Amino acid sequence: MKSKKGIMAVTGSLLVLSSVLSGCGSSSTTSTNNTATPATTAGASSTPVSAQPLSLTWMRYEHASQAIVANSKAVQEISKRKNVKLNLQSVPQSNYDDKKKTLIATNTLPDVMLVKQDDIQNFADTGAFLDLTPYLDKMPNLKKVISQQPEINKNKIDGKLYGFPLVANWQGVGGQLSMIRMDVLDKLGLKKPTTYDELYQVMKKMKEANPDSYPFTARAANGLTGTENLINPISFAFGSGYTTFNGTKVYYEPKDKQYKFGPAMPEFKAAITWLNKLYKDKLLDPDYATATSQIWQEKLNSGKSFYFQDNNGFASTFNINLQKKDPNAKFDMLDTMTSPSGAKRNLIYALGHLSESYVINAKVKNPEQVVQFMDWFYSQEGIEVTNFGNKGEDFTGENGDYKLTDAVVNKYKDRQPSAVYALQSEYGTGYLGLAVNNDDHAGLPFNSKEWVEWNTKASKALAAGENVQFVNDPPFTKDEREKLKQIRTQLDAYLAQNMDKFIVTDGALNDWDNFVKQLKAKGSDDIVKIYNDALARVK
User: How far apart (Å, rounded) are the C-alpha atoms in residues 286 and 270?
Assistant: First the structure.
């Protein structure tokens, strides 16, 4: 019987790779087969094995699709190889932010804890997290990764590094891409939409043929509200943008290489006008602001909705579930659509998850021993153990060319609802497990033919500049962090009170200019200046 701690029930079916879950990372070159992207080269394991046993409490959130197993294979291998006992503390993802902030506020952190970059920015000054900077010379593997991914330097606070960032050794390409029910289009004799105006007309036809449906559905995800997660990809596609990955109400404009405030731009108003039109015509799910991932999945799995602009990897499992009733049912990826302004672009997830890091409790015993152990996760051995298991038994190959053995693939290929998550749960591997340097080769044998096609298409669009990755926040000074807290307190609250009004209320857009004036009065220009000043220091 496997020992488990804090396991959530797996709700809804998922076959999406962790590579297309949310995250931030660095730029890198696309692989020659265009099926995924290598991001780093693993370093050799030079971390000494602890002479004395090391016991660490290790806390991270537990995703609904991958249960945390207390005595997983990775935990056992770490104990054997590194003489380190990990005592895992898992918290359901839905409750993790509250639990994490309580522990930080009361200075009762576990030894190792997964946090977001804004947690580090907000709480580094409290002294709760160990400053890793004095120990960098003891961490050759992390130093090598930083040299290959200088974007990590943005995580520093006043020049100090407080967290071990979640990076990617090899990863697929995906994100908030347009996915539509091709069988429904075919049945209605409709062509694939190439513009957002055409998409509106297509959804009207879908609604006419299916009166009880809401063709476009959305959800809250990745720490963002349903409203934020709906507006982000649409506003960016229209030529503007809404939030950073952590929800700050500015966005990075790649054309100008600077941050901007979306609501002040005409392209943003056009995006909200488009969403308002969808809502008025009952084409947009009225539950978009409150729908959980589970509710969202149920609607797309059951045929109540036909379009989403979100994590495209979910469509693999939607297809499996839909085809149990209708063999012709199929979600497929649209080409990048053109907006009314002429913009033609998608917002996708960055490589790696640099917005998430493991911090060390500043009060930890033997800090040098702990940081040397954490450095091991970036080594080739660390990558292998925390992504695949034992070489020869579970996988073959070297860095950049890992492959699960037939025995492992055959054991898990029929596991439901997701073979790869069943494997990674029991092994304790991958991004949602213990991997700090993630490698998605483990998912390839279980991916659908469509997933491979979508990944290839997304990779080509990335190379062509149509798919644009989220960027990591720049590092802020102490004064800037304090100002950001103050501004966000009033700005976020005002936006939260009013943004849905413009989407769901007839005539509300007539007050848009006054709305933007109020946002300026509450600090929208100031927050843009803070971000661009910070960005200028790292260019």
Answer: 20
Q: How confident is the model at residue 239 (pLDDT cuts 50, 70, 90)?
A: very high
**Around Cβ 134, how many Cβ atoms within 10 Å?**
12
pLDDT > 90 fraction of the chain, expressed in percent and rounded: 79
Rounded to an integer, what is the distance from CA 186 to the centroid of its chain?
A: 32
Q: Judge contact between 159 and 474, C-beta under 8 A.
A: no
Tell whether the model's pLDDT for residue 29 goes beyond 60.
no
Longest dimension (CA), the chain: 70
CA 372 distance to own-chain centroid:
27
Residue 342 phi/psi, 5-degree rounding, is: 95, -5
Q: Which pLDDT band, with edges at 50, 70 and 90, does 122 fall under?
A: confident
Is the pLDDT at 6 greater than 60, yes or no? Answer: no
| Model confidence at 26: pLDDT above 60 | no
Long-range contacts of 501-507 (CB under 8 A, 24+ apart): 502/272, 502/276, 503/227, 503/272, 503/275, 503/276, 503/279, 503/284, 504/276, 504/279, 504/286, 506/280
Paired tokens of 160: 């100090």
Identify whether 286 is preceded by a cis peptide bond (ω within 30 of 0). Answer: no
Query: How far is residue 339 from each of residues 198, 277, 282, 336, 406, measured CA to CA in Å?
Result: 10, 15, 21, 10, 46
Q: Which residues touch 479 (CB under 8 Å, ≥6 apart)?
A: none
Local structure of 439: helix, strand or coil: strand
CA 54/CA 32 separation, integer angstroms: 42
What's the alpha-carbon Rg for the chain, to the nearest Å? 23
Helix, strand, or coil (residue 38): strand
Average pLDDT value for residue range 66-71: 96
* Closest to 65 measured CA to CA, from 384, 313, 242: 313
Instruction: Read off the DSSP letter of residue 126.
Output: G
